[in-house]
Structures are given as C-alpha cells and as structure tokens.
Amino acid sequence: MEKIVKKIQMVDLKSQYEKIKTEVDAAIQNVLNTSAFINGPEVKAFQSELEQYLGVKHIIPCANGTDALQIAMMALDLKPGDEVITADFTYVATAEVIALLGLKPVLVDVIPDTFDIDVTAIEKAITPKTKAIVPVHLFGQCANMEAINALAKKHNLYVIEDTAQAIGADYFYKDGTKKKAGTISTIGCTSFFPSKNLGCYGDGGAIFTNDDALAAKIRMIANHGQSVQYVHDSIGVNSRLDSIQAAILRIKLRDLDNYAIARNKAAAYYDKAFANNPKLKTPARASYSSHVFHQYTLQLNGVDRNALREFLAAREIPAMIYYPIPLHMQKAYLDPRYKAGDFPVTEKLCASVVSLPMHTELDEETLKYITDSVLEFVNKKG
Ligand SMILES: *Cc1c(COP(=O)(O)O)cnc(C)c1O
After folding, report:
1. Does residue 140 have its Cβ closer than 6 Å to ligand 1?
2. What span, in angstroms and rounded, lies between the C-alpha atoms of 281 and 374?
3. What is the best residue among 100, 165, 191 to mutate for testing ligand 1's pocket, by most ligand atoms within 8 Å of CB?
4. Span 106-156, pLDDT tens digits
C-alpha cells in the first residue's frame, strides 16, 4: 500500500490552526497590544458567547477541566466522607478530585454499547451518604441524563456533568426538547485542553450552571474564596482562564458545529468500512444524544490488540487505548471495597477497545488508508 505523505496523528491541531491562522494570530496580537492578560475583555466576551451557544445562564471560566470539577464539588459544600458516584470507565480526573477533597468515590460500571454510565448500577450504589452523581459524557455523547436526573431528584442528589469530551453535543428529551451537554443538571464542567473538541492552545476549562446563587459561589471559589477584593469568605483556589486562550476559543467556538460535522463524517466513514465485521464493533449511538466524536472507539473481538497497534504503527497510523486500566484497578484508587471482576463491562472494555485517529482534518484518502490497514490486519489473521 502506498504511503501517505502527511503524517497521520490522533489529533491534527496544526492543520486546523493553518485554516484559522490569520484570525488567531491577529487575536493573540490584539491581546498583546492591550496587555489585558488576565480577566480581560476577551475572557468576558468568550464567556457570554459560550453562554449564548450553550443556552446556559452562567459560564465561569477556569484554568482547566480538573479544576472545574474540583471547584464544582467545593461549591456544593460536600463534606469529607460524602459519597460521590461516578463511572469506573473514564479519565482519572473525574475520580481524582472526589478523592482529593476527602470525598468517597463510588464507582459504577458502564453499559457496553455506548460506554455510558449504567443508570441501574447508579441506583444500586446509592446509600444514605450519597450526595452527588458525576456522569461522564464519554467520547462525545451524553449519558442517559433524563434517567440520571430522575434518580437524583428521587434521592435528593446533585448531578455534576463531566462534559470535557462532549461540548456541543445535544441531549434529546423524550418530549422532543433538547439541551446542550453540560447544561442538563446542577453543574456542568468542561476542559479546553488543546485536543478536546473545543480546545485552546494551552490549558483552560469552564463551569456551567443556571443557578444564580451557585454561580456566584463558584466564581468566588475560583477566585481565592473572595467576593470583594481582599475579603475571603471561604477557602478557594486560584483558577483562571487567561485572555490569550479566551481570544483563541472565541474563534474556535464559531467553528465548533462545523468541527462536529467533520468528526461525524470521519466516524461515518469508519462505520461504513467496518460494518458487519464480526471482529470489530463500531461505537453505538445513544437514542438520547447526538455524538460529537471526541474519540472513535472500536471494540475488538478476537483480535490481538497489541499486534494490531504494532501493525498500524509500522504504517505510521497511531491508535490509542482509552482507557487501558479501570479506575478500581489503578494503584492510587485501590480500595478494599473493590476487586477484579467487580465491573465486568469496564474490565472487558479496557482489554478490548482501541481508538483510531479522530479530528477535524481527516480526508477520505487518509481514512481509506487507515480503514484498509485495519481491515487488512483483522482479516489476514483469520
Ligand atoms: C480532559 C478531561 C478532564 C480534565 O481536563 P483537564 O483540562 O485536562 O484538566 C476531565 N474529565 C474528562 C472526561 C476529560 O476527558
């Protein structure tokens, strides 16, 4: 097979930048000219533009997605020992901040086809100490929020959406209405890490809420627990989005829906190429969510994953494993409550998933090269 000249990457930020270079360079230069590096007009403008795009009352920008989760939990006055339920199959940040605040992470399994947190498992995990649920909108589509919100209401729990991977996704209610990921429950948290669907050129994050009092509290916590300058009402943190990042995000926000279209096109190409192959399970679409394909993740069935990755690497095709180890098997989160076998779906996924290159700049030639290569390996090994 002929080799393609342009290097294939999991995420191609450079080609994406080339297309918006003039605007981005001018926006950065403008921040340099005004030298309003922190809390400048770009931050306020981005905040209100994102509020408008998401249809949410308050956006509080912060330094990164992990901070967003931490500040959200601090704002809800959770106390040491309170239990917070989240998915076993996720990026570590979700559980990390729970543990860091002295709260008790309670892990639950996911459902195999969409990788979403299992609502039945959440209900079983609820105890009198449970205070919050943190669903993760993994890989770009929403968890089953209507069911999760109903459970939360029944048991008087907060819901914090981790929407770091699904900004821009739509959640569809049974009555036909829709809301943007991250605006469906008490608080939404996101990350603007460069490789996320709405990524800046450094670190960034934001917290969303429709609750005025909560928004004020979140803003205060993110700013050293300070409501009036040098008056500190609670212990806070220092977590800010800087003006250069905000200026870049304003430009990329205008393209966010087009970025999702490009990602969906690539996903559709992959889906078609791998359809009906018994060794490759393509990612399922939830009925209650659009998909913004932060990742395109296959489940392998009877394929040697390491050998596949080596085969692809020899052709300069990267393929990543998100995530290789379930949270309950990570050394930092080992807990006598959990043992191997407790979360069979997550354990199976960690052993069988592989994510293919997914970004806004994949052309058909590249997609053909990737899918032909995957199929050649999978079919050859009989
Ligand atoms: C990226 C990510 C985070 C953390 O975001 P940072 O900006 O890197 O701190 C949290 N949760 C999920 C699901 C993520 O993918």
Report:
1. no
2. 13
3. 191
4. 999 999 999 999 999 999 999 999 999 999 999 999 999 999 999 999 999
State the Cα angle at 326 between 325 and 332, rounded to 5°: 85
Positions in the chain whose pLDDT score sits under 50: none
Look at ligand 1, atom 2, and give the residue with the nearest C-alpha: 164
Location of each CATH 3.40.640.10 domain in the chain: 14-254
Residues of the chain with CATH 3.90.1150.10: 256-378
Q: What are phi and psi of 108, to 5 degrees?
A: -135, 160
Ligand 1 geometric centre to CA of 176 (Å): 30
Distance, CA 75 to ligand 1 centroid (Å)? 19
CA distance 220 to 86: 26
Return the structure tokens found at 199. Answer: 């990524």
pLDDT given for residue 289 in this prediction: 98
CATH for the 256-378 domain, from 3.30.360.10, 3.90.1150.10, 3.40.1170.60, 3.40.50.300: 3.90.1150.10
The pLDDT of residue 201: 98
- Count of alpha carbons within 13 Å of 141, Cβ hemisphere only? 21
The class of domain 14-254 in CATH terms is alpha beta
CA of 91 to the centre of ligand 1 (A): 7
Ligand 1 lined by 64 (C-beta under 6 Å): yes
Q: 375 phi and psi, to 5 degrees?
A: -65, -35
Structure tokens at 43: 């931050």
Model's pTM, two decimal places? Answer: 0.96
Instruction: Report whether residue 191 contacts ligand 1, using a CB cutoff of 6 Å.
Output: yes
Strand partners, 134: 86
Q: Tell me, what's the pLDDT at 371? A: 98
| Closest-CA residue to 128 (of 161, 98, 108, 106) | 106
Residues 84, 41: Cα–Cα separation, whole Å: 36
Check residue 290 and give its pLDDT.
98
- Which of 88, 89, 115, 165 has most ligand 1 atoms within 8 Å of CB, for mutation? 165
